[in-house]
Amino acid sequence: MYHYIRICAIIGYLSDLIYGVMKVGSYVSSLVMLLILQIHSLYRGTGASFQKAQSEFTSGVLRNESVRNAGAQMAANAAQGAMSSAASDNRY
Predict the structure, then answer these.
(1) For the residues 8-17, what does the mean pLDDT come to?
(2) Nearest one of 28, 46, 47, 25 to 36, comparing CA atoms
(3) Which of 24, 42, 57, 71 has the most neighbouring CB atoms within 10 Å?
């Protein structure tokens, strides 16, 4: 009988713990949603648009030589890593 009470207490404690974690998660998700809404209102308040941001990105970032070289180097490193990983995983 004593073990039954102990098991019920543990189950009750775990359910309270799970409820608390879920409650904190809902608070965090609510705060994230409010933050996203604030950023959106700030973004729209400046008169910005997706087309403007896209044109600024292509005119500024993609024309920068160092950014293009860094992107090409990262792509080459990723491809080389994938090839060496595939070669070392040869199990046949």
Answers:
(1) 88
(2) 28
(3) 71
